[in-house]
Amino acid sequence: MAKAIGEIIVNIEQCKGCELCIDACPEETIALSETINKKGYRYAVTVNQNCTGCANCATVCPDAVITVYRKIEKSA
Ligand code: SF4
Ligand code: SF4
Asked: How does pLDDT run along the chain (76 residues), one tens digit per residue?
């Protein structure tokens, strides 16, 4: 069975820490950073490898600062 593997890249300096992406992620892959960006906001970071590339986070982000990469890995 093929498995979807995803990865997100967050433009951290543009993130406002609104947490919408955190709520939208079914894999609990996103959390807020402990440190702040230049605007003074905590920003979205990934905390596990469970991302499937579903793009929910990128869809809900009001500032469109998340880019999603997705590949399908075929099992042997
Ligand atoms: S692409 Fe989907 S699984 Fe991956 S971090 Fe975003 S919401 Fe979570
Ligand atoms: S939805 Fe966008 S602006 Fe809000 S915390 Fe996530 S990446 Fe940052």
From this structure: 788 999 999 999 999 999 999 999 999 999 999 999 999 999 999 999 999 999 999 999 999 999 999 998 887 6
Q: What is the CATH number of the domain that holds 12?
A: 3.30.70.20
**Which bound ligand lies closest to the C-alpha atom of 49?**
1
In a domain, 74, yes or no: no
Q: What is the pTM of this model?
A: 0.93
Domain span holding position 37? 2-69
CA of 74 to the centre of ligand 2 (A): 31
Distance 14 CA to ligand 2 centre (A): 9
Q: Name the token pair of 25.
A: 């992620």
Whose CA is closest to atom 4 on ligand 1? 51
Assess whether the C-beta atom of 30 lies below 6 angstroms from ligand 1.
Answer: yes
| 21 in any annotated domain | yes
**Tokens for 48?**
């596990």
Backbone angles phi, psi at 24, to 5 degrees: -80, -15
